[in-house]
Amino acid sequence: EARITEIDNSLESMQKIIGGYIERFTLDDEVCIICNEEGKLEGLPLNRAIFYEGELIEIIAGTFFICADPWESEHFESLTDDQAKEYAETFKAPVWFVRTAQGIAVVK
To answer: Which of 18, 19, 38, 80 has its CA 20 to 30 A from that of 62?
Structure first.
């Protein structure tokens, strides 16, 4: 289940949390997901589905976190309190992934 926490803003700390090399996936103009770049290749458990306009566009495998990614900054930053609450609610509970003849279906 999603939770709000603070982490150290170092590459080593981020890699330890996700268990490997980091991959950045943009959610919004200045918000992104940081996940394991090789999570799917390593067979990590499928974790959350990312949708855009109702269409499944990505599946995140393994542990991930969400942070601010301001264009003018060279570092990731904390989300605002409102953003943290919004994304904690959006990604609150895990989903089920089911393979079908048409591809992967997501069950909330």
So the answer is: 80
